[in-house]
Specification:
Distance between the termini: 44 Å
Shape: rod-shaped
Radius of gyration: 27 Å
Order of helices and strands: HHHHHHHH
Low-confidence stretches: none
Number of domains: 1
Strand content: under 5%
């Protein structure tokens, strides 16, 4: 199910809860809504709302950390492929084939991670990555400079392979479904309480609808940040495209 569909379902739960509270207000006997009852229910709703707000804040912080980690890995990988290409260029004509393989690997990575259609594919087992490592390893340096360049280039190849696996592993991170369900339940109860204490007029209905939209929007953005290579908060491919443009020169 897409994040947009989940966000709409969450909004329906919150706003529907508020409307349910308004309906209950009309159905309940008047003495159930006296000042003593309102005071007790208000304290209970305050506790639930506080817990829900704290949990939502923690989940947003976790999603932001995941998103920023993927963004940092992307910039790091883009810089490393440029440096690796420059090292191979300084090595000499013997490294032309590894340079072509590297350029092809970057181009295919862009096509897989930012496709025009379909879903992105984070495949750390792509064949060109292994081929690049083998080609760099098979270089036969004849000078001390070439030996040092080969060692450094091979180290960068291994580092890039590690980052590919790291980004692939992080792409599987998501919010715990039971925790998300409990969070939605808490907020729904809170909105039922809002509706229970609110008069049924258009101003209140619009205000509660906007509140439900704001909270469900925060949860939607949090979910979207767990999928940084697609959707509403997609990471830009500019760093890797800029790296590709600077390769081969």
């Amino acid at each position: 199910m897409s994040n947009i569909a989940v966000g709409l379902i969450i909004f329906a739960c919150f706003f529907g809860g508020a409307l349910l509270g308004m309906a209950l207000r009309k159905a309940l006997p008047q003495h159930h809504l006296d000042d003593d009852s309102k005071g007790l229910l208000g304290m209970g709703l305050g506790i639930i709302g506080t817990m829900a707000g704290l949990v939502l804040g923690l989940l947003v912080a976790s999603a932001t950390a995941t998103y920023n980690a993927q963004r940092s890995d992307l910039f790091d990988a883009a810089s490393k492929v440029v440096i690796l290409d420059k090292m191979l260029a300084h090595y000499g004509p013997e490294a032309n084939q590894p340079r072509r393989t590297l350029r092809a690997a970057v181009a295919r990575t862009l096509a897989r991670m930012w496709p025009r259609e379909a879903s992105p594919q984070l495949d750390p087992t792509a064949g060109e990555a292994d081929a690049l490592i083998d080609e760099v390893e098979n270089l036969s340096p004849t000078t001390d400079t070439q030996r040092s360049l080969k060692a450094a280039a091979f180290g960068l190849c291994i580092s890039l392979a590690q980052e590919r696996w790291l980004m692939y592993a992080q792409s599987g991170s998501t919010v715990s479904t039971p925790l998300l369900v409990v969070l939605i339940f808490w907020f729904t109860i809170t909105f039922v309480g809002f509706g229970l204490f609110s008069p049924a007029n258009s101003t209140v209905v619009i205000a509660l609808g906007l509140c439900a939209l704001a909270v469900s929007g925060a949860i939607f953005v949090m979910l979207a940040m767990y999928t940084p290579f697609q959707g509403f908060v997609q990471l830009s491919s500019t760093p890797l495209r800029d790296a590709l443009a600077h390769m081969g020169h």
